[in-house]
Amino acid sequence: MMKKAMRDVMLMLASCSFPTVGASTRWSTDEVVKFIAAHPQRAYFSRLFRDGGFRTGIEVGVAGGRFSEHMLIDNAALPAWSWSMMEPFPSGTLTSRYPAFGRPSDNKTVSSKMAWSTRGIGSNARLTAIRELSTAKAALDATAGAQYDFIYLDGAHDYVNVKAEMYLYWPKVAPGGMLAGHDYCDQKEDRTKEANRSLKLPLRCLGCSPIPTCGTYTEIAGTQSGRRARTQVAVVQAVQEWLLDAEPQLTLHHTLEDFTREGFATDGIDYKLLLTKTRNPSWFVMKPLEGGKVTPAAAGSCRAIVGEHQRRPAEANVKGAFERRRLFFDTSSMRERWAGGACFPRRRPTLTT
What does the alpha-carbon distance between residue 168 and residue 165 come to, in Å, rounded to a whole number? Predict the structure, then answer.
């Protein structure tokens, strides 16, 4: 019954009219929310530029560059616009696509055939490559004073870094713009395990319930294909805490990622560029046109913490972080600041795998 009602809502929203390609008008925050509700896939974030008047964006955590390539291809008909990419460890694939990232960190061979310039991709956009960790002083300096219509966080997926990124990058979102991120989902038993009961998810923030469930690994996940995807409850916890503490008057939204190859083909979207190892939803929050509530003190406190510890490798991963890489924080100092810090006002989650 609920699924039928949801389908009816989607059909109703799909019938709504939206400005056409190349429209000069800027969509309101309500129009953006309605559009994504009618097209609940992260692929359609590109249409916020193509049809909705967005002109500046940045992807934080670019991996191989497929999502950025999708954004550039789908907006090839736009007049001048800008797209920035932040990736501290560019792969050979990313460097092949955009050589400005320099020597690949994985030492893989770079192919000039994949270059966007060779394939005529992104020629209408002002592209910027930032080879830094998102919380590093150099990254914050590189984006200082910037106001982006769209910021997409898809780098770190541990509680500490996601929480810090939200405080640091929210002030960089332009009024009427969107802050979004990938992998917003959990497994329902996360909240029933004895060690995790103190998480008390979902929190009492607008749009925080229900939390979408992580699905299964896709056909490109190799031997993991078909198996249940790893939980991203650390991302959920960080996002909901930030919203409740920093911008409680705003509403959290998320995509569904129930796309099909045929559906994308109808809308001229390359299925292969959007398919990842999972179909995890993305979360997003809109900044009101009047700017909303601003928390400069909290942002400044976060900036001081990450600036001080920007490249000092942690002795061990923060417990509960599911990423298999070390965090670039001094964990002993972070623990001292944890209880009352503006970045992390709540107790960090104790998560079990």
Answer: 5
Q: Indicate whether 70 pLDDT > 80.
A: yes
Model confidence, pTM: 0.81
CA distance 288 to 307: 29
Top-confidence residue, 3 or 322: 3
> Can you name the residues that pair with 152 across neighbouring β-strands?
59, 180
Q: Each residue of 93-106: pLDDT tens digit?
A: 999 999 999 999 98
Instruction: Copy the structure tokens of residue 11.
Output: 């059909």
**How crowded is residue 195: how many other Cβ atoms within 10 Å of its Cβ?**
12
Q: How many CA atoms lie within 13 A of 97 on its CB side?
A: 22
Q: So what's the pLDDT on residue 199?
A: 74
* pLDDT greater than 60 at residue 204: yes
Residue 17, pLDDT > 80, answer no
Per-residue HEC secondary structure of the chain comes to CHHHHHHHHHHHHHCCCCCCCCCCCCCCHHHHHHHHHHCCCHHHHHHHHHCCCCCEEEEECCCCCHHHHHHHHHCCCCCCEEEEEECCCCCHHHHHHCHHHCCCCCCCCCCHHHCHHHHCCCCCEEEEEECCCCCCHHHHHHCCCCCEEEEEECCCCCHHHHHHHHHHHHHHEEEEEEEEECCCCECHHHHCCHHHHHHCCCCCCCCCCCCCECCECCCCCHHHCCCECCCCHHHHHHHHHHHHHHCCCCCCEECCCCCCHHHHHHCCCCHHHHCCCCCCCCEEEECCCCCCCCCHHHHHHHHHHHHHCCCCCCCCCCCCCCCCCCCCCCHHHHHHHHCCCCCCCCCCCCCCC
User: Which token pair is 221?
Assistant: 């996940």
Measured CA distances, 141 to 73, 89, 137, 178, 280 (Å): 29, 18, 6, 21, 31
In angstroms, the CA 344 to CA 218 distance is 34
